[in-house]
Each structure stands twice: as C-alpha cells, then as structure tokens.
Design goal:
Length: 216
C-alpha cells in the first residue's frame, strides 16, 4: 500500500480535509469501494440506503501525544500500560457512511486484538434482527507511531524474539501486524458473489483471572 497516494476528488472530499486524515483512514475508503465492487454491486446503488450498516474494528492509542517517540525502553522510565490504553479517537466509520451516503448503523468498535471480529459479531446480529441488508465490515490496524510498539514492549505483551506462536507452549507474546481490510456481508440468497459463509458468531470474556486481565 502507498500511504502517499489518494484520489480525494473520487470520493468527493476536499483537499483541506484529506490533508488531516490519517493514512489508514484514506486507505479504508479505497478498500470499502473495492469490497462493494468485488461483490458485484455498484456503490451508487446503495447510496441513501438505510439498509447498509458500517462496522469498523480498530484500536487507537488516543492519549499519546505527550509520550516520547523513542522505542528504547532500556533507557526510559517504564510507561504505565493502564494509562496509555484509552478511549478511541477515530471516526472512520462515520466518514465511510458520509462518503458513500449510507444511512444505516455506523460505529467503530474497539476491543483491542479482537476488534474486527467483534465488529463482525455486531454486524451479524443486525442482519439477523433485520435492521440491515448489507454490512460493511472493516478492520484497521497500522503501526505508524513507534510509541504503540514501545507500550507493548514495556508491558511485556510483545514477543521478545519477534515471533508469534499461537497455542504453543513456546509462546512468549505476540507480534503486531498491520492491515486495512474490508468485507461486504449480505444474505446468501441475494448475493451476486459468495466467497464464504458465516456459520455462527459469539463473544465472551474470561472475567477475573488470577494471572491478570491481559492474558488471553
């Protein structure tokens, strides 16, 4: 992906507005358009519809403007993990609804590593309830601010060896990945193109664990 290239006139956005957008918020507009087109639907056919919902899974470190952009935890005072992970400060969901003129539900969902799948869960439930006919589900995560990696290092949640080993006894943390992706979800009987089906969804939490809340 190229962070420096974006055709804002294609999406009807002013230069002044786009200049202030984060790169991932530009890219998600492109991926939403691609997902709709790939489903065999002209995006113009969905404009003005209350039957299209937008669900964006993302995690944003919001109150880090005063943090030093230095990823050398061995020469710095350790950060307080609990004070650096705060509320979301992104409006990518509403911008998608604005650009494409979708009038259904529009929300960003932040459950950290599970944000995009949590967004999928909410979208599926809205489809089952009959609130919408189409669900635009996007996942956004970029590591453009070094401090976000530093927080993971100092919090002990990133793998020191830089390798993810899910469900393996050698696992010692995870590795931050980057993605800006989108899928268009709709009922099978009305779909022009089907790549996969969602059989079931669900969300739970482990509650209070003696080993701490950050352990999965």
């Amino acid at each position: 992906m190229d962070f420096n290239r974006f055709d804002n006139t294609f999406f009807g956005l002013m230069d002044e507005l786009v200049f202030q957008l984060k790169p991932e918020e530009r890219i998600v507009l492109e991926t939403v358009y691609e997902a709709i087109m790939d489903a065999g639907i002209n995006p113009d056919q969905l404009r003005g519809s209350r039957r299209v919902g937008v669900y964006v899974g993302t995690t944003v470190y919001s109150n880090i403007d005063n943090k030093v952009e230095d990823t050398q935890p061995d020469v710095m005072t350790p950060m307080d993990l609990f004070t650096t992970i705060n509320v979301i400060n992104i409006k990518a969901d509403n911008r998608i609804s604005y650009v494409f003129d979708f009038k259904g539900p529009s929300m960003s969902i932040d459950t950290a590593c599970s944000a995009s799948l949590s967004a999928l869960n909410v979208a599926i439930n809205d489809l089952k309830l009959g609130n919408i006919d189409y669900a635009v589900i996007a996942g956004i995560h970029t590591n453009l601010q070094p401090v976000s990696v530093q927080i993971g290092q100092e919090g002990g949640i990133l793998s020191p060896k830089g390798q993810s080993c899910p469900l393996d006894e050698s696992a010692d943390g995870f590795v931050k990945g980057e993605a800006v992706c989108c899928v268009l979800l709709q009922r099978r009987q009305s779909a022009c193109r089907v790549y996969a089906s969602v059989r079931s969804v669900g969300i739970n939490n482990d509650g209070k664990k003696t080993i701490g809340m950050f352990c999965p």
